Automatic annotation (TrEMBL):
BP GO terms, sorted: peptidoglycan catabolic process
Residues making up the signal peptide according to the UniProt record: none
Keyword Kinase: no
Residues of the SPOR domain: 195-231
Gene designation: cwlC
GO CC terms in record: outer membrane-bounded periplasmic space
Protein name as annotated: Sporulation-specific N-acetylmuramoyl-L-alanine amidase
PANTHER family associated with the record: N-ACETYLMURAMOYL-L-ALANINE AMIDASE, N-ACETYLMURAMOYL-L-ALANINE AMIDASE AMIC
Cross-referenced CDD domains: MurNAc-LAA
Length: 231
């Protein structure tokens, strides 16, 4: 079982960036919850923990320690940017990082940017490195994502629930690809769906209130070589 640790940036007494009627801590909670749902719906072979279930206050070191003590295989910290810029960027630690960490950044960055661009022309601000505590103090491959700017025109995306869901699901796909998680078997489609998928068309040639009339037509059709069924 692979261990996934998802960190909802900020929380509790620390709202993170606040602008346009939005709070970073709420958006990071929503995005991570969408990621969690998508992982459990689509993949197996993993355990998952989040840094906070609700609106708790946590220090950066507490978040890293939670992941380290648990022995997580992957750590992703979700944030919203501020500073009136625009676009998406991702971070790994700017000290020594493993090739696995770079691989995680590559797959997450690609998945998230692709998903965002389904909603508009999102700027790619690049794969970056920084001395962030949660990246420095975590022992496993760790990436921090900055999902658009709360205090610019980007806010229109952040106010769109479908956008937050797509971004959360992209985080989930990135982590799943990085860990090579098996996909859940899809439930078998029902017979009716199979028929329509396979383009099976039925033709009705008559509707009668009198069964005798229906039987007469059925016999006539059979006589002409057509399979006839009375329903
Ligand atoms: Zn933040």
């Amino acid at each position: 079982m692979k261990k996934i640790f998802l960190d909802k940036g900020h929380g509790g007494s620390d709202p993170g960036a606040v602008a346009n009627g939005l709070q970073e801590k709420t958006l990071t909670h929503q995005i991570v919850e969408y990621a969690v749902d998508h992982l459990f719906e689509n993949y197996t072979g993993f355990e998952l923990r989040v840094s906070r279930a609700g609106d708790q206050t946590l220090t950066l070191s507490q978040r890293a320690k939670m992941a380290n003590d648990w022995g997580a295989d992957v750590f992703v910290s979700v944030h919203i940017n501020a500073g009136k810029g625009t676009g998406f960027e991702s971070y790994v630690y700017n000290g020594g990082v493993s090739s696995q960490t770079i691989a995680l950044q590559n797959v997450l960055h690609g998945e998230i940017l692709f998903a965002m661009r389904g909603f508009g022309a999102i700027t790619d601000r690049g794969k970056k490195r920084a001395n962030y505590a949660v990246l420095r103090e975590t022992k496993m491959p760790a990436v921090l994502t900055e999902n658009l700017f709360i205090d610019s025109n980007d806010a229109k995306y952040l106010k769109n629930e479908a956008f937050l869901k797509a971004v959360g699901e992209a985080h989930a796909r990135g982590v799943a690809k990085f860990l090579g998680l098996p996909q859940k078997a899809k439930p078998q489609p029902q017979k009716q769906q199979k028929e329509s998928d396979g383009k099976l068309y039925r033709v009705q040639v008559g509707a009668f209130s009198d069964r005798e009339n229906a039987e007469r037509l059925a016999e006539e059709l059979k006589g002409q070589g057509y399979p006839a069924v009375i329903v």
